[in-house]
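Let's do one together. I've listed all components of the complex below, 669 residues spread over three lines.
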Amino acid sequence: MLGAGASSLVLEVENLAAARGLRILFEGLSFRLSGGEVLELRGPNGSGKSTLLRILAGLTRAHAGTLAFTAAGEDEPGRHYLGHLDAVKPSETAAEQAAFWARYFGRDQAEALKAMKRVGLSGREQVPGRGLSAGQKRRLALVRLLIEPRPVWLLDEPTAALDIEGRALVTQLVAEHRARGGMVIAAIHGDGFEGSRTLDISELKTGAVA
Amino acid sequence: MSGSFSVFARELKLAWSGGGGAALPVGFFAAASSITPFAVGNGVENLKVAGPGVMWIALALASLLPMERLFQADLEDGTLDAYAGSGIGMEGIALAKTLAHWIATGIPLAIIAPVLWIMLQGPPEASWFVIVFSLIGSAAFFFFGSIGAALAAGMRRGGLLIALVTLPLYVPTMIFGAAGLYAAASGGEWAAPLMLTAAAALFGIATSSFAAAMALRTAID
Amino acid sequence: MAVMSIFANPHRFMAVSKWFAWGFTALGSVVILIGVYFGLFVVPPDAVQGDSARIMFVHVPAMWLCLLAYAFMVGASLISIVWRHALADVAAKSAAPIGAGVTALGLITGSIWGYPTWGTWWEWGDARLVSVLVLFFIYLGYMAIWQAMETPQKAARAAAILCLAGAVNLPIIHFSVEWFATLHQVSMKASNEFKYPMYVVALGYLALFGGLTLLNMRAEIMNTRAEMLAQRRQATAG
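Okay, and this is what the predicted structure of the assembly comes out as:
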C-alpha cells in the first residue's frame, strides 16, 4: 500500500489561513512536505495547531488558501486523523473496539489482535472503555493507524497522557511509518521526533483580526 | 460498504446495551398515553374520539426523546471526528445510526402500541393496523427527527431546539397516521392513509440523511 | 473564497444599501398607508361580507409577503450553501424576523376576518391556514438556530439547512391538510375597486420588506464590525 507511490507523496500547502469565529488564527502559511518526512507543529495552546490538523484532515474548512495531497499513481492518498479525543466508547471492551475498526476498514480480525498487541494492550482486551486509564485509551486510539495502513498520519498530541513506554511506542511507530515512506504531521508538546521539521504556529500569528 | 454497515452494527449493539436502550421512550409512550383519560374524560365515547390522536402524538414525542443523544455522544468523544477523518461520507453514518436507533427503539414502540390502543378503548381487531401504522410512523418520526438531532448536535440542552425544528417536519406524518388510526378504529377507509403515511416515511428515510449529513459536517467544522 | 473579508468589509454593499434601505422603508410605509386608507374609507363595502372584508387589505398582502419572504430566504440559503457567500447568510438572517412578523400579522388578521365569516376563530381543515401556521413555526425555529449556535458560521450553515428542509416540507404539508377538507374561500369574487387598493398595499409591503431587510442587514454588518474592533482592541492590549 505504501510501496512505489510513497516516495512521490507530497503535501503542498499554499497561503493557508484559519479562523475561529471572528478571530483569524493564522494566515499566509505555505510549505511543502514529502513522503518520509515528519512535521512537528509547535506553539502554545489555542494557537491553531489543532485547527491546522483538522483542515488537513478535511474536517474544518480553511478560511483561505489551498492544500493538496498528491501521490503518483493514486487519486488521493489516504489519511488518518487522530484528534485530541480518543474515540473510545465507555461500554465497549478494548478488544471489541479494535475489532470494530478492523471491520470498519474492511480488514481481517487478525489485524485487530496484532494491533492490540503492538500498542501494548494485550491483557486488557476485556476491559470496557470506562475501565481503561487515560494512557490506555490513547494506546487504543492508536490501533486505527496499525489496522489500516495509510500514507498520511495527522496526529494531535499523540503522546498526551502516555508514560515513558507509551511515548517510546509512538516514537517507534512514527519512525517505522517514515521508513515506509509515509508522512507524519503531529502537534506535540515536549520531546519531538528525530530528524523532523518544525513549524511554530505562533510565529505565523499576525495578531490581525480580519 | 464495510464502513457504514459496521457503524450500523455497532450502533445497534450500543443502543441495546447502553442505558437500557428502549426503556425510556417506551415508558414515556406508555405514561403519556395512560394519562390521556384523565385529561379527555374516561368515558368510552370520549376516548374513542380522542384516543387514537393522543396516542399518535405520544408516539411522536416518544420518538423525539432519543434524538438528543443520537449524534451527541459520538460528537463528544471524538468518534464522529474519527469517522469523518477516515474519509467516509457522513450520509452513510447518519443513515446507519438513525436506522439502528429506529430498530432498537422504534420497533419496541410499535410493539407496545396495540396494548396502549386497547387501553384507550380502541377495538382490539384493529391491533394489526396499529402495529403497522406505528412501525411506519415511528420510522418517519425517527428519520425526520435525525435532521433536528444533527442540527442541534453539540449544543447543551439541544432537546428544545430539536423539538421546535422537527415538529413542522412531523406534520404530514401526524395527519396521515392519525387519519389511518381513526379509520382503523371506525372500520373506515385505511388504505389511503396507509399509503400516504408510508410515502411520508419513505420520503423521510430517503432525504433525511442528506440534510443530517450537512448538519453534522457543520457541527464538526 | 475569503469568506471573512467580505463579511468584514462589504464596502460596496454598505455604500449602495444606505439609500435603498431608508428609501424603501419610507416608500413602503407611505404606500401602505395610502392603500389602507383607500381600502378603509374609499372603497364601498363588500356585497356579501360588508365592512369586515376590509381587513383583506391587510391580510392578503401579508400572506403574499410571508411566502415571498420565505422564498427570499430559501434563495439566500441556496446561495449560502453552494457559493458560501457571507452576504447571503446575513440576508437570510435579516429577512427572517420580518417574515415571521408578517406571518403573525397575516394569521391574526385572518383569524379576525374569519370569525364573522365562518363563525370560528380558527379552522384546522383549511390547508392554507394550517400551512401558514406551520410556516410560522419554521420561522421561529430558524431564528432560534441563529441564537443557539456557537459561532455565526455554524449558525449560518445550520440555518440554511433548516430553511431548505422547511421549503421542501411546506408543499407536502399543504397537500396533506388539503387532503382532508378545505373551508377557505376558493376565490373571492372581489370587484376591481377592491383589488386595486390591495395590490397597492401589496407593493407597499414589498417595498417595506425590502427596506427593513436592508436595514437589518446593515445593522448586522455593523454589529459584526463592532465586535471585531473590540476583539482587535483586546488582542493588541493583551
